[in-house]
Design a protein that fits this description.
Length: 413
């Protein structure tokens, strides 16, 4: 299935250096708008090194080369896929089977988006190459070089999007995501930590060009949150975020005695078609959830649903009336059960083994160490990142990419 391109800078793009950072490192040269460069490649590279721009020049060249190697065959493949979808529409009577027709039309729209994105990628690669050549003809022009560097970042971004989208082919990867964050215990540190995680995911989605909608938030008297639920209503959000499920631990002491846990749960948010899973009313128990803090004002409309055979409970409190919260909670329960069934490799929800359901609080996902040194350790992939502040600022695409690649390798085996 063709995939809409959404992922921003995966593991292949490396560390991005802003244009301002590059120029700041070399302030003694900034007053010179144009600097003569030799036509000799060695002398030209020497000038770039003197300016501190050599690594950025290499990044431009690498991005252009990568695009020239990967984009043409990818475009040929996606064009063929688009043509095949168009032929299916011509051969299919749209009125005979509306559901099948809708599926074909969605796939065609996805194919067209991918083709357009790849064409845009090729254009930006040519743009970066041309501007870079112009900047080198007789002078190193900061303005032109900046344009080339910015274009190369777009090229790397689009290539990462395409490559990552090819790995997201799980049954629910294409769906949006509903992310629930819960503080591990009462107290200032765990509740503030839970709010930091909420901020991290919001910033991550903004860096992708999308917004995460906070639909529920139970605030704490300590200034943090007891729990929150975010809905990401864009394609492939679940595919990207499914690896975030589990315990996220903030460690603030050398002996790990001072640690603040928070639990993250991620389930699909069905965007275009609702889940067709049917659950008997006899298997469900409805009750008002325990509401604390700011959420007390909407406790009257909040709904908690427990699935008796599995013991799984979900709730919804973000809507204004009880019926809407009931429907949303039911959809979350269905999504949760479908994910568990897939994890247990069973054919249906009725085959789920209750005793085999993993308690999320027993499933450590990531450690965020702030003392005596700063380090982020991803337990699932083994990835370690030294810049804790950058990760909390939403730069988690390297970890997400590593998990998706690991999952792909595991499924292939």
């Amino acid at each position: 299935m063709a995939a809409e391109l959404l992922f921003v800078r995966g593991t292949g793009s490396g560390t991005t250096v802003s244009w301002e950072q590059a120029c700041t490192r070399n302030s003694k040269y900034k007053s010179q708008t144009h600097l003569r460069a030799s036509h000799s490649s060695d002398k030209q590279n020497k000038v770039y090194k003197q300016l501190g721009l050599f690594s950025l020049k290499r990044k431009i060249e690498d991005a252009v080369l990568r695009a020239e190697m990967l984009a043409p065959p990818a475009l040929e493949l996606e064009e063929a896929r688009r043509i095949k979808q168009e032929e299916m529409i011509h051969d299919h009577d749209l009125w005979d089977d509306p559901a099948k027709s809708n599926e074909i039309l969605i796939k065609l729209a996805d194919s067209e988006k991918v083709v357009d994105a790849l064409k845009d990628l090729q254009y930006k690669a040519e743009e970066a190459k041309l501007i870079s050549q112009l900047a080198e003809m007789d002078a190193i022009n900061y303005g032109l070089f900046k344009q080339a560097y910015d274009a190369s970042l777009d090229v790397s971004k689009l290539l990462d999007q395409y490559e990552m989208s090819k790995l997201l082919h799980g049954p629910y990867d294409i769906e949006g995501a509903c992310v629930t964050i819960k503080a591990g215990s009462e107290g200032v540190c765990p509740e503030i930590w839970a709010e930091q995680l909420l901020s991290m995911y919001i910033k991550w989605s903004e860096k992708q060009g999308y917004k995460g909608r906070v639909v529920e938030k139970c605030c704490s008297e300590n200034g943090g949150i007891k729990s929150a639920t975010i809905e990401f209503e864009f394609k492939y959000a679940f595919g990207y975020l499914s690896g975030e499920t589990g315990v996220h631990l903030l460690i603030t002491s050398k002996n790990h005695h001072e640690a603040s846990p928070a639990c993250v749960d991620v389930v699909p948010l069905f965007l275009e078609t609702a889940s067709d899973l049917q659950i008997s009313d006899e298997d469900l128990v409805f009750s008002p959830p325990l509401m604390l803090g700011e959420a007390q004002s909407i406790a009257g409309s909040a709904v908690c649903i427990q699935h008796i055979p599995t013991g799984i409970s979900v709730q919804s409190s973000g809507e204004r009336n009880r019926f809407t919260n009931k429907m949303k909670a039911l959809n979350r329960l269905k999504a949760k059960l479908l994910v568990i069934a897939r994890e247990q490799l069973v054919s249906s929800v009725s085959c789920i083994k209750r005793e085999s359901i993993i308690d999320l609080w027993q499933k450590e996902t990531r450690r965020y160490i702030s003392h005596p040194y700063k380090l982020v350790q991803d337990v699932k992939t083994g990835i370690q990142m030294p810049d804790l502040n950058s990760v909390l600022d939403g730069n988690i695409e390297t970890i997400i990419g590593a998990y998706i690649n690991m999952r792909e390798s595991r499924d292939r085996d």
